[in-house]
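Hey, quick one: can you model this chain's 3D structure?
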Amino acid sequence: MTERFIPPHGGYQNLLSYQKAEIVYDATVRFCARLLDKRDRTRDQMVQAARSGKQNILEGSQASGTSKETEIKLTNVARARQRRSQG
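Sure thing. Here's the predicted structure for all 87 residues.
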């Protein structure tokens, strides 16, 4: 089998980091809906941070078709944000 010079992009749904980011996002949305007022700025910030984690992984995966460096950078940003939100 010959390996392409530039690999196909996408497939982020199969990444464990993306699957975990989806769980974190879903749990954050539910937590905020149950315990925080809709007008609370903290609620907006928490949901946005969880959404950003998913989005960075998605964008990193899509960028992998042209730049492995960009893919790794965005994936690491998402991982760091997840660690901060968990800690």
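One thing worth noting: The mean pLDDT is 81.
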